[in-house]
From TrEMBL, chain A:
Residues forming coiled coils: none
Gene3D superfamilies: HUPs, TPP-binding domain
Signal peptide: none
Family matches, as Pfam families: ETF, ETF_alpha
Cited InterPro entries: DHS-like_NAD/FAD-binding_dom (IPR029035), ETF_a/b_N (IPR014730), ETF_a/FixB (IPR001308), ETF_alpha_N (IPR033947), ETF_asu_C (IPR014731), ETF_asu_C_CS (IPR018206), Rossmann-like_a/b/a_fold (IPR014729)
Domain Electron transfer flavoprotein alpha/beta-subunit N-terminal: 7-199
Ranges that cross the membrane: none
Name assigned to this protein: Electron transfer flavoprotein subunit alpha/FixB family protein
Keywords annotated in UniProt: Electron transport, FAD, Flavoprotein, Transport
Family label: Belongs to the ETF alpha-subunit/FixB family.
TrEMBL record, chain B:
Higher taxonomy: Bacteria, Bacillati, Bacillota, Clostridia, Eubacteriales
SUPFAM superfamilies in UniProt: Adenine nucleotide alpha hydrolases-like (SSF52402)
Protein name: Electron transfer flavoprotein small subunit
InterPro entries associated with the record: ETF_a/b_N, ETF_b, ETF_beta_N, Rossmann-like_a/b/a_fold
Annotated SMART domains: ETF (SM00893)
Provenance organism: Dehalobacterium formicoaceticum
Amino acid sequence: MSDYKNIWVFIETAKGEAKNVGLELLNEGKRLAQVKQEKVVAVIIGNNNEAAAQVAIAYGADQVISIEGEEYLDFNADGYTNVMVQLVEKYLPSTILVGATNNGRDVASRTATRLRTGLTADCTGLDINEDGLVAWTRPAFGGNLMATILCPATKPQIGTIRPGVFKKAEPDASRTVEIIKEEIKTPVEMIRTKIVDTIKAVGDLGVKLEEAEVIVSGGRGLEKPENFALLQELADVLGGTVGASRVAVDAGWVPVQKQVGQTGKTVGPKIYIAVGISGAVQHLVGMSSSDTIIAINMDPDAPIFDIADYGLVGDLFEIIPVLIEEFKKLKAS
Amino acid sequence: MEILVCVKQVPDTAEIKIDPETNTLIRAGVPSIVNPFDKNALEAAVQLKEAHGGTVTVVTMGPEQAKEALKECVSVGADRAVLVSDRAFGGSDTYATSYILSQAIKKLGNFDLILCGKQAIDGDTAQVGPAIAEHLGLAQMTYAAKIQVNGKKISINRETDEGYEVIEASLPVVCTVVKSINEPRFATIKSKMAANKAKIEKLTTAELSDLDPTKIGLKGSPTRVKKTFVPVKRESGVKIKEETDRDTALKLIEKLVEAKLV
Ligand SMILES: Cc1cc2nc3c(=O)[nH]c(=O)nc-3n(C[C@H](O)[C@H](O)[C@H](O)COP(=O)(O)OP(=O)(O)OC[C@H]3O[C@@H](n4cnc5c(N)ncnc54)[C@H](O)[C@@H]3O)c2cc1C
Ligand SMILES: Cc1cc2nc3c(=O)[nH]c(=O)nc-3n(C[C@H](O)[C@H](O)[C@H](O)COP(=O)(O)OP(=O)(O)OC[C@H]3O[C@@H](n4cnc5c(N)ncnc54)[C@H](O)[C@@H]3O)c2cc1C
C-alpha cells in the first residue's frame, strides 16, 4: 500500500470552466498533502481543459493530469468512471477528493465500487490521523449526528466533500507546474446514457448557490411566492443570490435548485441571511459553515437564533424593506 | 415491464432527539418509516406498471422488523416483497450493502428497471444506487425528476444546477429518483388489510449461496465508522430587538458597518 501516494482532487467542469468546489478542495487537499509530504494533483476530464488547468494551478495544484476527448464534453458516469479507474491504476493516488455534487457523487460511487475501495460521503471535515489515514468527518441522520470514518485497508481512500465547506486559496496566476496529458478513450458504445436536451429551471436562478458570496434565503415566513421578489431585491443590492428552505421549495415558491440543507445544497457564503426560516436541523446542516449568519424571525425562540451571529427579532415584511433602503444608501456613499 | 424497487427502512430523523447527558442519539421511541425518497421510487414504479403492465417487486435489506416497511409498500402497489436478511450482513457499508442487494436482485429475476431513492435519510450517502448499477454492470440514471419509458428506451429528466438534463438510455438501467417526481399515493384501509396478509419472501446467505463472503458485512466493508459525536453548534451572537422593527433593522446596519462586514 506504500506505493500509493499523492492527493487527487477531481476538478469538475461545466462548459470547460472549473466549478468552485474543486478549487476549494485543492486548498484543503494541499493542507493534507503537506502533512503527508505529498503532492496535491488536479485531475480534469473534459473536452478542452486548458482554462480549467490554468485555474487549478493558480489555486494551488502541484500537478495537473488532464484527459481530453469529445466523449467527455458532457458529464457521463460511464466515460468518467472509465477514465478515473484507469488513471488510478496507473498512478496509484493515496486519496481522491471529489465535490459532493450530483456528478461528483455519481462518478465517485462507481469508481470506488469498481476499485473495491471505500467511499465516504458528503464530508465536512478532513484530517490525517496518527496512522497517516484520512479521517473523514461527515454529518448523518439529517445533521443530528457527526461520524468520523476511515478507509483503513484499501487504497485509494475516496471521499465526496460538500461544496462551500472549505475556502479557496488566494489565486496565484504566476505559478507554473507540470501538466500531464493522458490519452484515454472511451468507445461510444460504452457510454450508455445520452443527453438529448437541457431544460432551464423555471424562473431566474441567478448566481448559483455554491458560487455566491451572499445568500438571502426565505422560508415559510415569506407566505407566498411573490414575496420572494423582496428577497431578490435584497440579494441584488448585496450582489448575492436567493436560497430557500425546503418548505418554500415544496410549496413551489422557489425552484428546487435553490434548496439549502440536508436534501438540498450545502453553502458557505460570506453572509447568509435566513428570513422567515425556523432553523430545523436539516436546514442548519446546509448552511452552518457560512462566515456570518443573520437571521430574521418574529419568534424570539426560533432555533435559528441559536446559531445566528446577528438575530433580528421582528416582522420580516417591516425589516427587509428598511435593509434594502439602507444597503442602497451605503452602496451609493 | 418488470420493475424492482430498493427500499430502506429508516428512523424518522425528523423525530430524533439528542440526549443532553450522554450526547448521543435517542433512538428509542423514534418511529421507523419507509425512506421518503423510496416512496417516490415506488410510486414511479407503480405508475409505470399502470401504464405499461408488468410487476413491481420491492426489496429491502435489513432486520426482521423491516418487513413492516415491505408491507407498507405492498399496500401502495408492490406485487412482490422480499426481505434480504442475515446476521452476516450486519455492519455493511455502502459497498457491501450494494453488493448484497445486487446479488439478491440477480437471484430474483431479470428486471427492466431498478429504482432507488436519491438517498436514505439516515446514512445520507446517495451511494447505494450507483453502486448497485456498478455491481450489476448496468447504466445509471440518477436524480430523476421524471421518467418516461417507450418500448426498450427510457428517458429521464435529471436534476442539475441549471435545471434538468433530458437523458436517454436503453433498458435495463438503475435509476434513482428525487422528491419532486411525484406525490406518493396513500394506502386504503382495504389495501392495508390485504398487505398485512401478504407473503414476504426472505433471502439469507443460504439462498444467496453465490455471495462472496469477503464482500459482505463489516468484514466486507472498506469503510469503518471510527466514532460518532453530536455536532458542535456555532455560538450564537447578538440578538437585536428594538422598539420598532425599523430600529431593529437600523441597529443591524450599524453593527455590520462596525464589524466592517459591509
Ligand atoms: C428527511 C428530511 C429532509 C429535509 N431536508 C431539508 C432541507 O434540505 N432543507 C430544509 O430547509 N429543510 C429540510 N427539511 C425540512 C425541515 O425539517 C423543516 O421542516 C424546514 O426546514 C422548515 O422550513 P421553514 O423554516 O421555512 O418553515 P417553518 O419551520 O415553518 O418556519 C417558518 C418561520 O418563519 C417565521 N415567520 C413567519 N412569519 C414571519 C414574519 N412575518 N416575519 C419573521 N418571521 C416570520 C416563523 O416564526 C417560523 O420560525 C427536511 C426534513 C426531513 C424530514
Ligand atoms: C453515521 C454513519 C455514517 C455512514 N457513512 C458512510 C459512508 O460515508 N460511506 C459508506 O460507504 N457507508 C457509510 N455508512 C454505512 C451506510 O449508511 C450503510 O451501508 C447503509 O445501509 C446504506 O447507505 P445509505 O443509508 O447512505 O443509503 P443511500 O446510498 O443514501 O441510499 C440510496 C438508496 O439506495 C437504496 N438502499 C439503501 N440502503 C438500502 C437497504 N438496506 N435496502 C434496500 N435498499 C437500500 C434505497 O433505494 C435508497 O433510497 C454510514 C453509516 C452510519 C451509521
